[in-house]
Amino acid sequence: MNVQKIINNIHFLTLFFAVFIHFRFSLRPTFRMFISIFKLKLRNPFATMMKSTALLFFIFLSHFSLSQNHISPLWKKDFKNGLNSINKASAIKTDRFGNCYVMGTTSMIDSSKDILLIKYTAEGSELWHRVFDNNNIGDNFPKAMALDLYGDAWICGISKPTPETCDFLVTKYSNEGVPQFTYIYDGPEHLFDEANCIGTDKLGNVYVGGYTTSSDSGLDLLILRFYADGTLAWKKKYATPKLDQATALVIDDSCNVYICGNTNNSQRSSDIVVLKYDSAGNLKWFQVYDGIFNERDAANMIRLDDSLNVYVSGFVNHTNDRSDLPVLKFDPFGVLVKEALYNGVSADCEATSLRIEKESVFITGRKIEYNLGITMGVLLKYNKAGTEKLFLKTPDDITFNATHRFGNTEILFGSKLTHPESTLIPFIAELDTLPQFRWTFADSTVYGISHFVDVEVDGGSIYFLGDDAGDATGTINLLKYKFNSEADNKKKSGTIKSYKSGIPKNK
Fold it and tell me: Which of 129, 130, 131, 146 lies closest to 95 in space, CA to CA?
């Protein structure tokens, strides 16, 4: 074999390896770069080899740089309401202007707990924060938050005037932080009443779900509708001899409200309940789902597709006291048309998010392997018929919280447990169709976060909400990242500004 042939073979292998890198890692450089290889004249074999090697090196560096530029950290904000305060995060929402609302609780050591609401600009500047203490009467806890058409914040939860009772609570703040109204429902038995979920329709009406207590039927599922000005439009109960409560709701474009919840037979047995009310408060249908093992079944999320099919998830128990991850599909008339279960076997599985995207159903969840003492993330993807399933399970140091689609890119959000610090850091990954990770991002510059509670996506912005709340201290942590599209990446030089722990200065 002569030298020319050897060089040609090296040249061919170099090209093959470059093409492999391109397709394996979804790098999309211009084809002219590859075509140029074929146009290289082989009169100088050593020059050809150098050109091929240089091209391969460029492709490798380009891939490395681009993979690092998919996610750009923007800023981190830490909120502490006083030196000795304990602050815990609960939920996050963004309005149509890019402002960010953070809900949580705040308290001083050995004092009552109050509802906390903070508003930030898109650049991370705090506009205001408010504390709801119900005139210093007992503890107050938020459960859910919704923003109406005007960016006003509606919060539902519980108010505890005494340790032995709690009341159904709804309060509203304007987008400027001005208190608008407070509604407290104390049932006729003056026992336990609680608001768990909230949502707004296209007209600005607000729906709140939870439960109230009565002596004859125990817990009754409670759903309320408010007009935009805070006036109560109607209040409805779903009462059975069992213990009934609402846990999540969703509203369609016709202002019908769909509620999922639980109906308890005993401490060891409960069923999933799904209901539909029209805008006037008329019950249109309800369904009760009892898993095949007749154990504890619970729903914690509900979604609609474009055809008004209803999807519900949560967990269902089986005989060995372990739980499976369900996806239940009901047609627009309330008929159960599909049931899909991910079996945890020796583990507990529970859904953490549910999303409908065109013809696909995405579910994230957590899987706790008690025998191994580990918790891992689970991602399920079904088609709407429930017949095709893609499955992804993470190592034991990563959990999943949500998914989102940016153009043609499917992004997974979660948290990663660091060692030996044993704190959580944001975790973001792109999925391929296998499914596997095309690339991953874990922000190793963030320390001290013990709980991640919520993720919000607004355009190309990604917000992570968590806290480091302990027994004697607690700070709410809000982090913002930017997802860089492929077009954005091509505009970049391949470098990313350093991101150090702490709060970067806003320009």
Answer: 146
